[in-house]
TrEMBL record:
<keyword id="KW-1133">Transmembrane helix</keyword>
<feature type="domain" description="NADH:quinone oxidoreductase/Mrp antiporter transmembrane">
    <location>
        <begin position="132"/>
        <end position="406"/>
    </location>
</feature>
<feature type="transmembrane region" description="Helical">
    <location>
        <begin position="167"/>
        <end position="189"/>
    </location>
</feature>
<feature type="transmembrane region" description="Helical">
    <location>
        <begin position="78"/>
        <end position="103"/>
    </location>
</feature>
<feature type="transmembrane region" description="Helical">
    <location>
        <begin position="326"/>
        <end position="352"/>
    </location>
</feature>
<feature type="transmembrane region" description="Helical">
    <location>
        <begin position="209"/>
        <end position="225"/>
    </location>
</feature>
<dbReference type="Pfam" id="PF00361">
    <property type="entry name" value="Proton_antipo_M"/>
</dbReference>
<dbReference type="InterPro" id="IPR001516">
    <property type="entry name" value="Proton_antipo_N"/>
</dbReference>
<feature type="transmembrane region" description="Helical">
    <location>
        <begin position="412"/>
        <end position="433"/>
    </location>
</feature>
<feature type="transmembrane region" description="Helical">
    <location>
        <begin position="34"/>
        <end position="58"/>
    </location>
</feature>
<dbReference type="InterPro" id="IPR042106">
    <property type="entry name" value="Nuo/plastoQ_OxRdtase_6_NuoJ"/>
</dbReference>
<dbReference type="InterPro" id="IPR046806">
    <property type="entry name" value="MrpA_C/MbhE"/>
</dbReference>
<feature type="transmembrane region" description="Helical">
    <location>
        <begin position="246"/>
        <end position="264"/>
    </location>
</feature>
<dbReference type="Pfam" id="PF13244">
    <property type="entry name" value="MbhD"/>
</dbReference>
<feature type="transmembrane region" description="Helical">
    <location>
        <begin position="453"/>
        <end position="475"/>
    </location>
</feature>
<feature type="transmembrane region" description="Helical">
    <location>
        <begin position="364"/>
        <end position="392"/>
    </location>
</feature>
<dbReference type="InterPro" id="IPR050616">
    <property type="entry name" value="CPA3_Na-H_Antiporter_A"/>
</dbReference>
Length: 782
């Protein structure tokens, strides 16, 4: 059973948000030591998630739910199986180490509390993504990861590069999130449930749906943008503008793996189709090669690691897309291994930068004797990244080769994996050998080992990579096989071994990877120059394309605004009335439902009299010389309508009309006296003719619409409802008052609020002094 019960998982979800609220206070009082205290919160969450492992290994799943928006069938529900628990363990466990690392890396920074607050918000959002069962809840947390990553990437907001990277990440991942929202809602309606656990057990409902292609495209757009798949890969390396603790957390256990998590989660419902098994492996394979090739080009250690993350994400998507059980098992092991070695390597690079003053490959060397603990962490993590025994990365490489070899179109996917892993091997050697074992270079700062906060996380993750490799049988049964089963949707428990028990294609492929990786490493400098020259020749890339797209959108928006928002009220009114005329007449023309012009002969004399008042009022408004006069005369039409209400037995409505009309005239008149308006109509005769015709057209259209409605058979349902329930429910005899106050009370409250805000705006306008007394006096006289 879980340590504190399934319901306690809600508290584990809430914990990071509580820590986010406490961070600024604790950082102000305890400085960098606050990280020790704050790290307890994710550590407790880690223990809670760890307590689920035995039950899940035995085949159990856990679910808990709270009502959130029951009207729309949206629950705050969580679902724990092998996939979600492993992700939750990585997020909370590595999150604990990153919290400690942040205290050492940002020691003395004036905004440490703010940074930790953003970090915990991000942690809570990621936990919500992987634990949410309701797909609407999942989407809310999904978008929260985009917002919080924007805050983290742009933390150093005084630098233009940081601001650009933050905006770019938000636009790309946020845009993909909108596509994902549509895909999830469509999947929920087609699958008959908005609970992910029920969708995953719905069989082939989604695969056989006529909307499967639309759901697939929308879901992978969300996943590809979040997990930086080609051609959306460019935002991830740019996100290296963030402080290194963010990079370490972002790349190892959180945001960039959210897209991979989503694809793995949706595998039982969407996977196994020809579309799935074609698109995902192709884009994943391209991303793998693009990431490693661009990684070879870099000399900044953080950028090298960033591009290898892009490559690793491509590898995970490719393996997931094959839908082959062994390949997916390889993806699971590689994801687990990647989280350990990549988190460690980023912290290593951050420590080198912090203590040596640079992370440029050409300016560091021979650091092992000066930073031995960090050096050990670098070596162990690099060995795992390179896929060498006895690290868990070696097991991952063996299994994934076995999976691609036997998958559909396995030769192509194996070729992608071989080339990508060989370049990954060379880059792993670059990160470990050059900085720590290369010839000594004088660094900007006198390099030395950092504080325990700086190396505790990296050495812990590096050692875990070794321990999990040595004990892979137990780790496989307890953690990795349940995760694979959750992705496949069927039980899966293939026993893992550190070393192959027989000569297999996977072993030969591993040997080829090492050999090719060594060759690439030997010629790395020449390859770097060749790739740089090729990129320089090509010139254009997705990153530049993003800037061009944003610039194009801004220009289009500016052109559109300048075209539509001309500042001319006359044009705005004309456009409004043209649209009204279009809406009124097009349906009647298309359907032929014109009203019957009858009943005018039965009007009483006083009704004709009221109509004549309205017509005279219109004539007076049109011929008035000044706008204030026209506004006052405009009230005649409102009073005429109020008289009609009075004559037809609606005194309450008539009184309301009188009050609203009077108030409107007063407000408009007061406003007009404060505006510098021309005393005469400056329109040409042609413009006046057009406006008159348009006004008559709209007036006739509204009249015909009202006549059409009146000529329909009367439906007494609503009247009967109000008559029946006004007394019993609202306890009122006056039905009109009951409707206004009770049945549509919020609507009436909104109307009152609008009138109040309008009155306050007019009051403020009245108190504004005119620019010149002469203008003010002349306007008041009008």
């Amino acid at each position: 059973m879980p340590l504190f019960g399934v319901e306690a998982t809600f508290w584990a979800l809430l914990g990071p948000f509580v820590a986010a609220a406490l961070s600024p206070i604790l950082a102000k009082t305890l400085k960098h030591n606050a990280s020790w205290l704050l790290a307890i919160i994710p550590a407790l969450a880690f223990l809670q998630f760890l307590s689920f492992v035995p039950g899940i290994a035995a085949g159990q799943t856990f679910r808990a739910s709270l009502e959130w928006v029951p009207t729309f069938n949206v629950n705050f529900s969580i679902y724990l199986d092998g996939l979600s628990v492993v992700f939750a363990l990585l997020i909370s466990g590595i999150g604990t180490l990153i919290t400690l690392y942040s205290g050492g890396y940002l020691k003395g920074h004036q905004n440490l509390g703010q940074f930790l607050s953003y970090l915990f918000l991000f942690m809570g959002a990621m936990l919500g993504v992987v634990l949410a069962d309701n797909i609407i809840t999942l989407f809310v947390y999904w978008e929260l990861t985009s917002i919080t990553s924007f805050l983290l990437i742009g933390f150093d907001h005084l630098r233009r590069a940081s601001r650009r990277a933050a905006v770019q990440a938000l636009v790309v991942t946020g845009g993909g999130g909108l596509a994902l929202m549509a895909g999830l809602i469509l999947a929920g309606y087609q699958g008959g449930s908005f609970e992910m656990s029920e969708l995953l057990n719905s069989g082939d409902i989604l695969r056989e749906s006529p909307y499967y292609t639309a759901i697939f495209v929308l879901v992978i757009l969300g996943a590809f943008t979040k997990s930086a798949q080609f051609p959306f890969h460019f935002w991830l390396p740019n996100a290296m503008e963030a402080p290194t603790p963010v990079s370490a957390y972002l790349h190892s256990a959180t945001m960039v793996k959210a897209g991979v998590y989503l694809l793995m989660r949706m595998q039982p419902a969407l996977g196994g189709t020809e579309l799935w098994m074609t698109i995902l492996p192709i884009f994943g394979g391209i991303t793998l090669l693009v990431g490693t090739i661009l990684g070879i080009r870099q000399t900044d250690l953080k950028l090298v690691l960033a591009y290898t993350t892009v490559a690793s994400l491509g590898l995970l998507v490719m393996l997931t897309g094959t839908s082959d059980p062994i390949a997916i098992q390889g993806a699971v092991i590689y994801l687990f291994a990647h989280s350990l070695f990549k988190g460690s390597l980023f912290m290593v690079v951050g420590t080198v930068d912090h203590e040596a003053g640079t992370r440029d490959l050409n300016r560091v060397g021979g650091l092992f004797s000066l930073m031995p603990i960090t050096g050990v962490a670098a070596v162990l993590s690099a060995l795992s990244m390179a896929g060498l025994p006895p690290l868990i990365g070696f097991v991952a490489k063996e299994v994934l080769y076995d999976g691609t070899w036997h998958a559909v179109n396995g030769g192509l996917w194996t070729g992608f994996a071989l080339l990508g892993n060989a370049m990954m091997f060379a880059l792993a050697a670059t990160v470990a050998i050059k900085p720590f074992f290369g010839s000594k270079v004088k660094t900007p700062k006198a390099a030395h080992e950092g504080s325990i906060l700086l190396y505790a996380g990296s050495i812990t993750l590096a050692v875990l990579g070794l321990v999990t490799g040595l004990f892979i049988v137990s780790v496989g049964h307890q953690i990795l096989s349940p995760m694979t089963s959750a992705i496949l949707g069927t039980p899966f428990d293939e026993e893992l071994h550190l070393f192959p028990t027989y000569l297999s294609p996977a072993l030969y492929l591993s040997m080829a990877t090492v050999a090719l990786g060594i060759i690439i490493f030997m010629y790395l400098d020449k390859l770097r120059l060749i790739i740089a020259e090729i990129l320089r020749t090509i010139g254009w890339g997705p990153d530049k394309g993003f800037d061009q797209t944003i610039e194009g959108i801004v220009r289009f928006a500016g052109t559109l605004s300048n075209t539509i928002q001309t500042g001319s009220m006359v044009r705005y009114m004309r456009a409004t009335f043209v649209v009204i005329a279009f809406v009124l007449y097009v349906p009647m023309i298309l359907t032929g439902n014109w009203p019957k012009l009858e009943g005018f002969g039965s009007l009483y004399v006083y009704e004709w009299f009221i109509a004549a008042i309205a017509v005279i009022g219109v004539y007076a408004v049109v011929t008035a010389r000044y706008r204030v006069t026209a506004i006052v005369l405009l009230g005649i039409q409102g009073f005429a309508v109020a008289l009609i209400f009075l004559l037809f037995g609606a005194p309450d409505l008539s009184f309301t009309q009188f009050m609203v009309e009077t108030l409107s005239v007063v407000i408009l008149a007061l406003v007009m006296t404060r505006l510098n308006l021309k005393p005469t109509d400056a329109r040409s005769s042609r413009a006046k003719l057009f406006d008159t015709s348009l006004a008559l057209l709209c007036g006739a259209g509204i009249s015909m619409l009202l006549m059409s409605i009146v000529q329909l058979p009367f439906d007494p349902t609503l009247s009967e409802f109000f008559t029946q329930y006004s007394r019993t429910i609202a306890h009122g005899r006056n039905i009109v008052n009951v409707i206004l106050v009770d049945f549509r009370g919020f609507d009436t409250l909104g109307e009152i609020a609008v009138v109040m805000v309008t009155g306050l705006a007019v009051l403020a306008l009245i108190r504004v002094r005119p620019k010149s007394e002469g203008n003010s006096k002349s306007e008041n006289n009008r």
